[in-house]
């Protein structure tokens, strides 16, 4: 019998050796941040490891047409009073270690976020409006009072403080956390490759912490929607800068690259069928520490508002990769108001007069300042550095002031913004869910910038709970007028990303949507699971 087994084993091995190996499809993609701490989106958004979210499955997310698609949740319903949402999970979902994925893992994720200083906590207060979220995060109420409940293994119940007609869209950023692993390892579960477990379409193979490069592989346990069609995804943040990414693409070492304005003509001439454009729902703007001089003076802020020649900026320095921004909302985004946007004009005379009114005629006596922006790849890597240099020259010429420039790693920049370690920032922001509250929420009641403007907060709060959409949009426009009147920000540009992709890439993700745009990794869950490679 043993001899027969040995013979059979030898034959099997010989047969295996004679068969052609199945080629694995590997995509090499540019990354974003070169620094990352935890491989856990629900621990930190701004300092997360590269594409940590691709390891987990949200309750819902957006496809390339910006249609909300059920993911871990197969359905949801809203109560008659509008205050309670019930989500039903798909049966059979598991963690990569074989443990069932349950409603408890989603509820635990937000309970933990509310009690451990989550850097995206404002989102669940304003956008989510979860009952008692603010009280719990401020330590005045117990976590058990949160409007979150795992009714059973497959049912989540969420109670909000006001009707939230768009709440399912908010859940596109609600990822589960493996409670059974955190109970054993604490937050350390997300620090090491061998302890990270996934619930989504990819598993983690490697993570180089020195530059935040990761290798993800197709999950062997994920059974939900949008399963990966590639075997491996290698993400290299050093390729995020177009100056590095395009040479790598030309050498065959990357499958796509973002382009800066100088690269567009060359790439278009060489790869006319590979050019992809995307009108990103994003805005780059200047924000301030409103409590410290000189930007605690509205006149100073208004001087900056009128001193920016957005048309010149986007037709020269940022040609082909950005359009002028007059509003915090991008054109085409729900609630965008062209009348509001039209107020952001370049008016050097006004700018000079406001500086004089603030006591700094022609910039005399104005302190030297330093504008901070964060180091990153993608479209911001192409836009922000040259824009900062343009603004530096513009403010010197128009306002007579000296503005130095400092670039910081993402986590350090965010720490400076949140804790007011500097008084002026270039702040980029891209939508999270399709509703005006998303953008207005970042300035509401502290929000991302620590702004507390009573008139603004009152209008946004009223708009947020208003069931009539036309009325909501009107209220948001009034709120933005408050922002303009007090010059709380300086809208700068809305990005237009241009990339070049390899002709080896295919699948729905590689083709433009109905508007002619291709979102690439800005819709990461959709893009990387609907992409193929020859």
Task: Write a short abstract of this structure.
By secondary structure, the chain is α+β, with helices and mostly antiparallel strands. It is 32% helix and 19% strand.
Could you describe the 3D structure shown?
This protein is an alpha+beta fold and 534 residues long. It contains 18 helices and 20 strands. The chain has helices spanning 2-18, 103-115, 121-126, 133-137, 167-170, 179-185, 242-250, 264-270, 298-306, 310-317, 338-341, 348-357, 378-399, 410-418, 436-440, 454-464, 469-485, 524-529; strands at 26-30, 60-62, 68-70, 73-78, 84-89, 148-152, 155-159, 202-208, 213-218, 232-236, 256-258, 275-279, 282-288, 322-324, 369-374, 403-408, 424-430, 490-501, 505-506, 532-533. The strands form 6 sheets. Strands 11, 12, 13, 14, 17 and 18 form a 6-stranded antiparallel beta sheet that branches. A hairpin with a 4-residue loop joins strand 8 (202-208) and strand 9. The longest helix is centred in the C-terminal third of the chain and has 22 residues, at 378-399. The two termini are 46 Å apart. The relative contact order is 0.15. Residues 1-21 have low confidence and may be disordered.
Tell me how many strands there are.
20
Q: Quick one: overall form?
A: globular
Q: What structural class do you assign from the helix and strand content? A: alpha+beta
Output mean pLDDT: 93
Low-confidence stretches: 1-21
Query: How would a textbook summarize the main sheet?
Result: 6 strands, antiparallel
Over all CA atoms, what is the radius of gyration?
25 Å
Strand content: 15-25%
Give the proportion of residues in helices: 25-40%
Tally of separate helices: 18
Distance between the termini: 46 Å
Quaternary state, please? single chain
């Amino acid at each position: 019998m043993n001899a027969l087994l040995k013979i059979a084993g030898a034959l099997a091995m010989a047969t295996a050796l004679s068969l052609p190996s199945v080629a694995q499809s590997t995509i090499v993609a540019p990354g974003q941040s070169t620094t990352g701490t935890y491989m856990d989106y629900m621990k930190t958004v701004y300092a997360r490891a590269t594409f940590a979210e691709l390891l987990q499955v949200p309750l819902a997310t957006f496809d390339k047409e910006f249609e909300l698609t059920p993911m871990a949740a197969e359905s949801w319903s809203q109560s008659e009073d509008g205050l309670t949402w019930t989500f039903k999970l798909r049966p059979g979902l598991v963690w990569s270690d074989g443990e069932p994925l349950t409603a408890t893992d989603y509820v635990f994720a937000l309970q933990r976020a509310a009690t451990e200083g989550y850097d995206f906590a404002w989102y669940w207060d304003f956008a989510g409006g979860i009952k008692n979220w603010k009280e719990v995060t401020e330590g005045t109420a117990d976590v058990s009072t949160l409007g979150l409940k795992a009714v059973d293994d497959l049912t989540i119940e969420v109670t909000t403080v006001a009707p939230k007609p768009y709440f399912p869209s908010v859940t596109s950023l609600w990822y589960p956390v493996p409670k059974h692993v955190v109970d054993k390892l604490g937050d350390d579960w997300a620090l090491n490759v061998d302890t990270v477990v996934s619930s989504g379409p990819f598993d983690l193979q490697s993570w180089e912490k020195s530059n935040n490069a990761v290798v993800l592989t197709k999950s062997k346990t994920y059974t939900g929607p949008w399963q990966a069609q590639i075997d491996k995804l290698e993400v290299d943040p050093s390729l995020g800068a177009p100056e590095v990414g395009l040479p790598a693409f030309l050498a065959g070492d990357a499958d796509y690259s973002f382009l800066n304005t100088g690269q567009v003509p060359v790439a278009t001439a060489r790869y006319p069928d590979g050019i992809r454009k995307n009108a990103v729902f994003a805005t780059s703007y200047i924000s301030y520490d409103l409590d410290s001089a000189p930007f605690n003076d509205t006149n100073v802020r208004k001087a900056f508002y009128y001193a920016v020649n957005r048309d010149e900026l986007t037709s020269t320095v940022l040609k082909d990769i950005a359009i002028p921004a007059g509003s915090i909302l991008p054109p085409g985004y729900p609630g965008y108001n062209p009348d509001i946007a039209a107020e952001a004009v370049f008016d050097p005379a006004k700018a000079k007069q406001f500086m004089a009114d603030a006591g700094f005629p022609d910039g005399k006596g104005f302190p030297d300042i330093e504008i901070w922006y964060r180091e990153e790849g993608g479209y911001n890597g192409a836009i922000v550095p040259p824009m900062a240099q343009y603004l530096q020259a513009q403010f010197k010429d128009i306002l007579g002031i000296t503005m130095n420039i400092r670039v910081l790693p993402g986590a350090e920049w965010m720490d400076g913004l949140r804790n007011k370690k500097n008084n002026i920032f270039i702040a980029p922001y891209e939508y999270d869910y399709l509703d005006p509250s998303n953008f207005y929420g970042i300035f509401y009641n502290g929000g991302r910038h620590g702004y507390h403007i009573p008139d603004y907060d009152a209008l946004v709060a009223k708009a947020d709970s208003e069931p009539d959409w036309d009325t909501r949009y009107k209220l948001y426009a009034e709120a933005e007028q408050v922002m303009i009147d007090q010059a709380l920000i300086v809208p700068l540009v809305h990005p237009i990303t241009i990339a070049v992709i390899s002709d080896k890439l295919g699948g729905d993700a590689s083709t433009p949507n109905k508007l002619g745009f291709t979102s690439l990794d800005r819709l990461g869950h959709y893009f990387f699971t609907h992409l193929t490679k020859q």
